[in-house]
């Protein structure tokens, strides 16, 4: 394989990744998803559930009519029509398509995780927490750890909390 062919393969893969990520950003746009929706989609992706996987963005049109891909790769019509290029062009389409599907799946999965983290609800039994500031900080830290967040209050002495 020469440098030109490798460059085209790399560009096809990059286009697929970018297009897949862009397409996935619209996945939840026409709905008002709830926590259960994000959990269902995330579990479906992780389990490879066809009911979920079939709803993810795909670019079958690139496979059926690859002209858009050829134009994006700046391939000229004469080059595309050469019989000896058919195997290479199939490889370009396959690489684009695989990169698209992987990036779209990954972005939808990340979107689910981001929304689930943002919407985590924790209940703190206030009566069980002592009025002492250190206990409160420990409880907050535990909640933040569960929410995959961090908080830095710095070092405090007991007198810092006295009025």
Structure description:
- The protein is mostly helical and 163 residues long.
- It has 2 domains: 3-119, no CATH class; 121-163, no CATH class.
- Helix content is 62%, strand content 0%.
- It has helices at 3-24, 35-47, 50-53, 60-64, 67-72, 77-80, 86-118, 133-146.
- It is elongated and about 80 Å long.
- The model has no long low-confidence stretch (mean pLDDT 77).
Distinctive features:
62% helix; mainly alpha; single chain; 163 residues; 2 domains
Radius of gyration: 25 Å
Characterize the overall form.
elongated
* Biggest sheet record: none
As a percent range, the share of helical residues equals: 55-70%
Question: How many strand elements?
Answer: 0
Structural class: mainly alpha
Residue fraction in strands: under 5%
